[in-house]
Every structure is written in C-alpha cells, then in structure tokens.
Q: What sequence folds into this?
C-alpha cells in the first residue's frame, strides 16, 4: 500500500506537503515473534528515506503501544497499565502533540514511545530471578550456584537475552565471554557489589561536602560586602583584605581576626552580597575592586588573603590593582586556579547543569540531616530548579533552626554559582602577576596534585613560598599558623621556594 501511495503521489500530486506513514517500535527495536511485521514496517521506512533523498517529503513514525484504542487497549483490565516490551501506553492526545513536532523536523524516520521505569538494584526485581526466568528455571534455590549457565541449558539466544536484560534493566555490562562463564554465585556477587557501590556513591557526596564546605548558619549571612574585623592593630601598614571560601561568608575568618596585627577587612562575595556577578571570578573581582580602592586611600601596597575559592578572586584583584600601579603580595590558603579546577572536576563532575544542581542540593542536605540519599537523588533528578528547591526545603530538618528557607536558597545558589565560576575560569591567556605569593597547604589535602605549588608559578613572575599547616581544607582554618603567616611571623621549616630560572645575559 505504501509503495503504491508513493508512486501515485509522485504523479497525481508531486507538490504534496506531507507524506506520513505509521511504523512501529517493533521495527526499530525488534520484538520476538514479529519478524514479518517488523520487515513490512522497515520497507515503509525505506520508502520514506528514498523520498527524502529525492527532495520529497517522507516521514515514518515508529509508534510504541497506544493506550486509548487498538489491541493493547483491549487487553487492559480495569484501567491498569500494561508494560509491553519495556514500554507503557501512549495517550492519543500525546501522540497528536508529538506528531506536530515530528512534522516540523527533517528526519525521515522517528520514533515515539513511553519507556517504563527500569527496575534497579535493590528494587523488587532480583538479578538471579530474572536470569532464572529467562532460562525457564522455576526454583533457583535448587540450582547448584557454581555450575555455569551453559551447563544448565543456556543457548546462544538465551545468552543474548540475558546480556541485553542485564544492560537494560540493571545497568550491568558484561562481555560474551563473561556470559558464558556466568553462574548464580557470580550473579549474587554482582548484586551485592552493586548495592555497596550505590551506598558508597550516595554517602560519598555528603562526605565530600564535609571536607570542602563549612556549615553555615543564619548569623553567617550578612548583606554587607565589607565586614570590618576587630583586630590588634599593632602595626600601621594600612588595610589587609580577606576573601572567604566557596560559601562567601566572612565568618570563616572571625576566630582568627583577633590575632591579626593589622586593620583587616573581609570582602564577602556570596549571592546575598553580589547577586549578579557571583557566577564569574572576573566579574566578582571587578565588582569588589572599587570597594578595595575606597578603603586603601593613599595606601600603595596591598596584602590580600584568599581562602579556597576566594583565592581565585584574590588573584584577579591583584591583577586589577597591578594594572593601576599598585604592588603587593598574596596569601592563598589552600586555593589556586589549577587546584580548584581539579577539585571541581573530581567532586562535581556532572553531565549537565541540572545534574550539578541536584548534586549540590544533595550534598548540602547531607551535611545537616540523615537522609536516604539514593531516594532523594532520584526525586531531585526528576525536578526542575524550582521544584528541586522545594524538595530541598521539605527535607531540611525544621527542628535544627540553623537556616531559614531564604538562607537555604542563598547558600545553595552561592555554592552552585561558585562551582560554575571555577569551571569557566581560564587564566591561560592572561598575563602573569608580579606579586609574590605565599601558599598555605594542609597536611591532609583533599586532592592530589603533582606540582608542589599547585601550578602557581604559572600565575606569577614573583616568588612562590609554600608553608604547611596541620589539618585538612576545613580544619586548617582553626590553626594559629595562619595568623602567624598573615602577621609575617614566618616559621622557617618546611618552606619551599619556587622561582622561575631566568637566563643571565
């Protein structure tokens, strides 16, 4: 019929706007017992492809099961959904909406189906029982666990079905050789390993946050960009400037401030403080620069301290100040461009921004509450940004009274924006600084780095000094050695200097 319609339309109505045929997923994906049906649909699809190649319209749509009419609708009992070949029934209204989309694109063969939710490890489906069902084994408890499946009657067709089912239903990929040596003991071990990996991966997210991000509370959120600390002020050498970490809050320096000998001002850079620019290191620095210049007055030398993510903003502030003929030095506390890139890639490697949003929310929630992270991850992945936040607020423990809903949003958007800022930050084409840099590294680093100076010799032409502080990325901030470093009371042991060798003329 399709062949005849093609021939007739070419002569009777060569300007035909649409030539549409209904194929089936049985053709595109295959279905046991429907070879002839699939072959016939395949012929229709080839006709449409040929028409398209010749400049005529041709569209073949591979439909899945249709819910309101036809054979599948007749098979339904009491409006229960049938799962056929891993798909559910698609409503006629949905088909019509989809048809409109298909008519507006150029591909000759397309498909539309409603995929049923896959059965994952830990759900109602058991891997061993699934394989036993394929092989026709009714009671796996009576089957010797170490006997290979091939010795129990698994033929080549069963092997293919087992391989595809494990990939489709359980996300387990095995080679043909693996399938041939498979037994029920190995299947049981695969199940246990899969469960352990899921538990490890979901727990790892919140554990990572504990060593990357400090817990915040309502008192930490201050709208002022500049926060003046009460310091000793024993030495009159102008203001020093402090940049906090990924949370953007000045509270990280509050404890050590009383030991600093100079006037100290913290530059807060969270969403509450610089809402329009926190997603960019460059824009954050440019926004903060006028505030620094106003505080410096007649001061021509600068000392900027940056912690973690704040180190990147500190570097760019130094670059902007040098361009205005200021000179000075930087103290970077476990932060550098290359190091932050590796950290973000290691702990926040996500396929999309939506996945990153879910990861940040899941990690934050894990810092404040004991939750079923796997269930929450699945729920978050189904939501858009606004819905994700509603889920986050719903799970956040009300009895803690540490963060209002507004501050929950602020810390989420701040951390998310700063991660995006790290991903977009690129210094490869920027001129190197002239300022010297002192790098403070923890004795328990969160990422391994081949270069001792975190690659800072590529950031500056000046001297790079390295000093080790006991603790990890979070706990090192409670160490008095940081105050000593800021006050220039250097401890000489464990200092390594990096200088680029210059050719002597």
A:
């Amino acid at each position: 019929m399709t062949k005849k319609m093609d021939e007739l339309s070419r002569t009777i109505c060569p300007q035909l706007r649409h030539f549409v045929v209904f194929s089936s997923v049985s053709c595109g994906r295959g279905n046991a017992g429907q070879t002839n049906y699939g072959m016939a649909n395949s012929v229709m699809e080839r006709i449409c492809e040929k028409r398209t190649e010749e400049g005529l319209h041709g569209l073949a749509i591979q439909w899945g099961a249709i819910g309101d009419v036809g054979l599948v609708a007749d098979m339904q009992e009491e409006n229960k959904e049938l799962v056929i070949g891993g798909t559910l029934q698609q409503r006629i209204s949905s088909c019509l909406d989809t048809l409109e989309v298909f008519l507006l694109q150029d591909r000759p063969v397309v498909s539309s189906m409603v995929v049923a939710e896959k059965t994952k490890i830990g759900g109602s489906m058991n891997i061993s029982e699934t394989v036993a069902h394929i092989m026709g084994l009714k009671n796996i408890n009576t089957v010797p666990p170490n006997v290979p499946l091939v010795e129990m009657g698994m033929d080549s067709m069963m092997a293919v079905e087992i391989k595809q089912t494990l990939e489709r239903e359980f996300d387990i990929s095995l080679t043909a050789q693996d399938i041939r040596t498979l037994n029920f003991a190995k299947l049981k071990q695969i199940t246990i390993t899969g469960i352990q990996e899921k538990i490890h991966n979901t727990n790892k997210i919140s554990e990572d946050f504990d060593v990357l991000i400090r817990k915040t509370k309502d008192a930490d959120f201050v709208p002022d960009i500049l926060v003046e600390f009460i310091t000793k002020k024993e030495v009159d050498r102008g203001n020093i400037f402090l940049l906090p970490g990924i949370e953007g809050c000045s509270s990280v320096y509050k404890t050590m401030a009383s030991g600093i000998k100079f006037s100290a001002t913290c530059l807060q850079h969270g969403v509450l403080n610089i809402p329009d620019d926190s997603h960019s290191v460059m824009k954050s620095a440019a926004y903060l620069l006028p505030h620094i210049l106003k505080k410096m007055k007649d001061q021509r030398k600068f000392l900027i301290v940056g912690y973690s993510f704040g180190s990147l903003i500190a570097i760019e502030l130094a670059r902007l100040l040098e361009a205005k003929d200021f000179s000075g030095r930087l103290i970077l506390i476990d932060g550098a461009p290359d190091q932050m890139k590796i950290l973000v890639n290691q702990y926040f490697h996500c396929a999309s921004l939506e996945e990153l949003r879910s990861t940040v929310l899941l990690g934050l929630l894990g810092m404040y509450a004991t939750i079923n992270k796997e269930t929450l991850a699945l729920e978050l992945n189904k939501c858009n940004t606004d819905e994700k936040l509603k889920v986050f607020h719903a799970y956040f423990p009300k009895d803690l009274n540490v963060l209002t809903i507004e501050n929950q949003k602020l810390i989420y958007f701040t951390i998310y924006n700063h991660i995006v800022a790290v991903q977009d930050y690129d210094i490869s084409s920027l001129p190197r600084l002239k300022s010297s840099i002192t790098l403070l590294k923890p004795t328990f680093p969160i990422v391994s780095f081949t270069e001792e100076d975190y690659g800072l010799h590529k950031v500056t032409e000046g001297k790079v000094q390295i000093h080790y502080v006991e603790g990890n990325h979070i706990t090192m901030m409670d160490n008095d050695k940081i105050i000593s470093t800021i006050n220039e009371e250097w401890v000489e042991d464990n200092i390594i200097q990096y200088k680029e060798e210059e050719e002597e003329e």
In short: The chain has three domains: 1-115, 128-200, 209-495. Residues 128-200 form a domain with the Non-ribosomal Peptide Synthetase Peptidyl Carrier Protein; Chain A fold (CATH 1.10.1200.10). The CA atoms of residues 457 and 464 lie 7 Å apart.
